[in-house]
Structure formats: C-alpha cells, structure tokens
Amino acid sequence: MADRRRSSSAAVLAVLVLAVLVLAGTTAFWARAQADLTRDHQALHRAQTLLTLRRAALSATQTRLATVTAQHQTLVNAETDLAQLAATVQAEAAGVSGAAGLGDLYRSTVTDCLAGVLQAYGQVAGGNSAAAETALTAATTPCLAAEGGGGEGLAYPFDFPDPALLLAAGTYYGYSTNSVAGTIQVITSPDRVHWTVLANALPSLPLWASTGATWAPSVVELGTTYVLYFSALDRASGDQCVGVALSTTPQGPFTPTADPPVACQTAIGGSTDPNVYLAPDGRPYLLWGSVGTTTHSIPPTLWAEPLSADGLTIPAGTTPTEMLAPAESWEGGANGILEGPTMLVTGGRYFLLYSANNWRSANYAIGLADCAGPLGPCTRPTSGPLLASAGTLLGPGGPDVFTDGQGRTWLAFHAWLPGAVGYPNSRVLSIRPLSLVDGQPVIGSP
What we know:
Layout: H1 2-98, H2 104-125, H3 129-146, E1 154-156, E2 164-168, E3 171-176, E4 185-189, E5 196-197, E6 209-222, E7 225-234, E8 240-247, E9 255-256, E10 271-278, E11 284-290, E12 301-306, E13 321-324, E14 338-346, E15 349-356, E16 365-371, E17 378-379, E18 394-403, E19 409-416, E20 428-437, E21 440-443
Antiparallel strand pairs: 1-20, 2-3, 3-4, 4-5, 6-7, 7-8, 8-9, 10-11, 11-12, 12-13, 14-15, 15-16, 16-17, 18-19, 19-20, 20-21
Helix pairs in contact: 1-2, 2-3
C-alpha cells in the first residue's frame, strides 16, 4: 500500500515536473516569438522608412528628369529655329552679295545680322543660353534694318509668334509662343523699338502639360502679381488647354499653379490662344478659342468668361459665352477658322479683334467685331478683314491690344516676310497705332 502511494506520488511529481518543463518551454517559446516579432516589426519599420526615402528620391529624380527634359526640348527647339534662321539669313546674304546696285552699307548690315545669328546658334548648340540671348540682342538692330528697318511696323526681326505686350513700371515686355528664346519667349524694351532678349519666362510646365508645345501667352497685372495665361497640350487628352502661372515680376520666371487647366473644352477639340482683358470696373475676363472638331463639324469658335478677382479660376456656376463663330468668306466661310482673340475697351465700347483663316498662309488676317458688352453679343461691322497681307508683311495675325505710358493704344501682331511664308519660317513682331475713326478701330501707319 505504501509502495503504491509512493508510486502515485512519484507519478504526480513527474507530471508536475513535466508541466513545469512544458510551461518553461512554452514561456521560452513565447519569449523567443515575441523577440522575433519585435525584430520583424523593427525590420518592417526600417523597410517602410527606406521605402519612403526611396519614393521621395524617386519623386525628386522624376522632377529633375522633367526639368531636364523640358530644358532639352527647349534647346532642341532653339537649335532648330536658329538653324532655320541662320539658313534664311545666309541665303539673303548670298543674294545681297551677288546683287548689283546695292550699297556697301546694306551688305555690311546683312553681314552683321548673319554674324550675330550664327554666334547665337553656336552658343545654343554649346548649351550657353545666356550668351545666346546676348548675341540675339546684339543682332536685333542689324537684322531689323536688313528686314525692312521698321517698315510696316516691324519691331523685332526674329521669330515671335502670337505676341502679347505689357507696359510695367515704364518698361515694355513682350511675350510669345515657344521658339528660340524659350517655352514662353520674353523680350523687353524702353521704347518699343530696341529690344533685349531675356531668359525663358516659363521654365517649367504644370504636370498636365506636355513639353515643347506652348502657345499664345497673355500676361496681366493683378494687384502685386503678374498672371500668365498660356495654352499647352494636355497629356491625358492630347488636346490644347489653357493654363495659369504666377510671378512677382513681369519678366518672370512664372510658376504654374497646381490647379487643372482654367479652360479645356475637350468635347470640342480643346481650348487655345488665351487673352485676358480688364473691364472698366477692373474685373478680368478670359478670351480664348476652341479648336473645333472635323468629326462633328464643329468649327473653331471664340469664347469669353469672367474670371475670379485674382484671375486664377472661373467662378463656379458660370458657363462659357460664345462670342463669334466663322462666317465670312475671308475667314473660310462657316467652316473657317477663328483664333487669337483680343479686346479693345474704349469709351464704354468693346471691340473684339481676332485672327482668321490658315495661319500658315498669306490668307491669314485680322478681323474686327463690335460687341455689346464684355460677353457680347458681337457683330461684324464689315464683311472684310481689318488688316490683311500688304507690303512686306504677309498673313498678319495673333493680335494683342496694349496701351503706352501716354495712354495711347497700340496693336501688336505677327506676320510672315516676303518669300518666307509658312512654317518653319519666322513670324516677326510688328507694332502699329490703333485709334478710333468715326467710331470704328483703325490700324494706323507705323
């Protein structure tokens, strides 16, 4: 009996020992598991931190890549345009050298123009954009003289399409479609005659915009901010849309807003050629043209809409107002092309000036419509254009109304030169006075 009790006690003891061992083993297991879990958690945290850093580095790299890509595209555009310009001037110089009856002074002028252009081309090819800008500025006067010396209002002899001019603190600033001097070209002058080339006004584009395709800028001063409107290709749709960029100075650089395009009518081919004007009460209005679609037989049309006081957005609840559609034979009829609008506001009256017909041809011209208010309706006072091809300027277009320091009104526009109509030839900048005669706008002599 005692042996059985001892045996039973031994069994109980053995079970207890086994339980203690199991419990100890389990505790050790869970301790190891907890330690492993802690290490895994710490490794995961380190991996997440590393991933965050790598994502930030990737984002920075992508930003730098986009900037480099844009700079590269600008360089490619500049090389192409300057090469074309150099070839044109070389051909002109060759013709002058072989022509009889021309004085040494003109030959020297063409030679100086050619030398400046070739120097600028070499600087761009070498990646020295600052030196190229200086060379172009130096070549402006001889090239201007070689191309007509201000005849027909010629003001700047290099490619400067879709110009927009602004007077700020006594200095004139000119902006234009991407070409030799950058994504948005900018030049400056104290007198509208002698121009200096500045750096690219829009060195970076918004994320929605493709590089190498920015057109028709317009700049307005609102308070202490200069607001730039431009058209560019939308990456998502491939259509043109209107973007906004800001600067504290008129020469820029302008920084695009993070907002989506302010106008982007993809249903009717896209929106392009923005122009901003101020009504007598100081409110800004945006003018632009829709591209149109051949699929649905929707022609390019001119539109307007009020902007917010800061000029950055179109107020909610407003819809675009159609200002003018093609109709006249010189515009191409009902299926013609209207684009490049600008507004002359004088004496409480509104006059819409615009481009029409094929921009690549000498048929391109500037039209006029009389509008009842800032949003129309608008009617044409005549069936013909306000300014068509004449003299040494062919296919005038891209009009922009601006005012000088004395309150006089001027019209800036681009045009082709004789024997050089159509892309990739240059569209030079011209400036002429704009006045009212018998209540209607008239473009004066240079």
